Amino acid sequence: MVRISALGAGWRIRDNSFCYSPALDIRTREILTGDPMRSYLVGTLLAVMTCPLCAQHSEYADPKLTHGATDSKVTQATVQKTICRPGYTATVRNVTAAEKKEVMRRYGLPPSELPNVEIDHLISLEIGGSNDPANLWPQYYEAAEGQADYLGARAKDVVETHLHREVCEGKLALVDAQRLIVKQWTIIYQSLQKDKK
Fold this sequence. Notes:
By secondary structure, this protein is mainly α. The protein folds into 2 domains: 5-50, no CATH class; 79-196, no CATH class. The chain has helices at 26-33, 36-50, 88-92, 97-106, 153-168, 174-183, 185-196, and strands spanning 11-14, 17-20, 117-121, 136-140. A two-stranded antiparallel ribbon has the order 1-2. Strand 1 (11-14) and strand 2 (17-20) form a beta hairpin. Helix 1 crosses helix 2 and helix 5 (153-168) packs across helix 7 (185-196). The longest helix has 16 residues, at 153-168. The two termini are 27 Å apart. Residues 1-26 and 47-54 have low confidence and may be disordered.
């Protein structure tokens, strides 16, 4: 699929036709409706009108909605006492059902889609991420219909585990791991898969 940024957020070209993804361009839909709660319906209608099968699940969070946030207690100096300690993430993981629904609303997705997504920590807890809403986004497990080569939440989990191990073994700085998970996690996943072969 060819992405044309000049068309504006949410618009894409697929099979030589313009299409609109209801999970994107939230601000535009809010302007059209004047109501963020109705924006999802408008986005869905636009999707049906323009290209019913073109909705694509993003492999990365929208930086305007989820820019990432870290836990101030986790620093390079404290990794062995925090994230590298077995069972650590279970002691800090705290995202309520209400917060998950709010994340879905911000991304223009209905609560009924919750079983299909992981409310993911953009910077994972195991490399010092926080439960702050700025660090949460809905990541689909599976590809959208007709979407090829999608890497979803389970693939990102593999990269998170790898980066956690690298930090705890002293092979990678904490801040570098946090940067990589935000910007390059799919590239790292593909590299790890190649190494297995």
